[in-house]
TrEMBL record:
PROSITE patterns: HTH_TETR_2. This is TetR/AcrR family transcriptional regulator. Transmembrane segments: none annotated. The lineage of its organism: Bacteria, Bacillati, Actinomycetota, Actinomycetes, Kitasatosporales. Keywords: DNA-binding, Transcription, Transcription regulation. Residues 29-48 bind DNA. Residues 6-66 form the HTH tetR-type domain. It comes from the Bacteria.
Amino acid sequence: MTPRVGLTTERLAQAGATLADEVGFDRVTVSELARRFDVKVASLYSHVKNSHDLKTRIALLALEELADRAADALAGRAGKDALVALANVYRDYAREHPGRYAAAQFRLDPETAAASAGVRHAKMTRALLRGYDLDEPDQTHAVRLLGSVFHGYVSIEMGGGFSHSAPDTEETWSRVLDALDTLLRSWPPAP
């Protein structure tokens, strides 16, 4: 099958990411994308294998975008400033691109994950944690803690879980980041 003129794997991934932001990552399919391009589904199969392949490509795009934003935000920062900058990158990205943010959580096979920008995320987080003087295995524990807190807060907030009560979520977010900074500064030694 010859590729349709104007369609590329990159263009489909970008369109899929836009579609994910509009309708939700879980609703992205090759069929839905074909409707958007007003082409037959078969026209897309020379560029993507199936919906899983498409979602993987969207996930890779989202991870790359997030890593680029994080690198820019972290440049020249350390300690709490770096922590807040990284946290805000994730939160802002989720607000601006909810479908892409969901895609960044998509489970990748080990080989794809190892070649993805997810590796950059881990390295940047570990670099941030060097400012807190954490050694292994505490660094790994802290990477997991930060990812859990950032993703958990953002997911609950995006789902409307905090919208029914005061105080404002900005105040809570600030206090969560203060608490993380305090915890990281006084991280207990391994038993």
